[in-house]
Amino acid sequence: MDKLPNPHLNKLKAMAQLMEPLLKVGKAGLSEAFVGVANEALERHELVKVRFDEFKDQKKELSKQLAESTRSLQIMAVGHVIVLYREQPDAAKRKIKF
What CATH number was assigned to the domain covering residues 6-86? Predict the structure, then answer.
């Protein structure tokens, strides 16, 4: 996914501040099942907050891996939380308008 313009990033970051983590990386790590659930969440919500309950020392590498495997952009990372964004390909179904 291409990089977003700054106004779009700022809007997404502001929206993410109000969100609770939707997904939590646990003992299983980035299993196929977790990546599948992350894909479904991104398809449904476009903007997803993920918390690392486990693998906190590896979160930098794992967050890049998760973004690549879900074809999404990592918008921000604060503490043990990351935010991913993937635009809905169908314009009529998009929840986030720029």
Answer: 3.30.110.60
